[in-house]
Amino acid sequence: MNTNRILGGILWYALLLVVIALSLGPIVWMMSTSFKPEGDIVTINIQWIPKTFTLENYRNVLVQYDMLRWTVNSLIVAIAATVLALLLSSLSGYALARMEFCGRNSIFLLIISMLFIPMQITVVPLFLLFSGFNLVDNYLALILPIGANVTPVFLMRQFFLNIPGELEDAARVDGANDWRIWAWIVMPLARPALTAVAIIVFLSTWNSFFWPLIVTQTDASRTLPVGLAQFMSLRPGMSMSAQAYGKSMAGAVLASIPPILVFFMLQRYFIEGVSKTGLKG
Question: Does domain 56-275 have CATH number 1.10.287.3510?
Answer without folding.
Answer: no
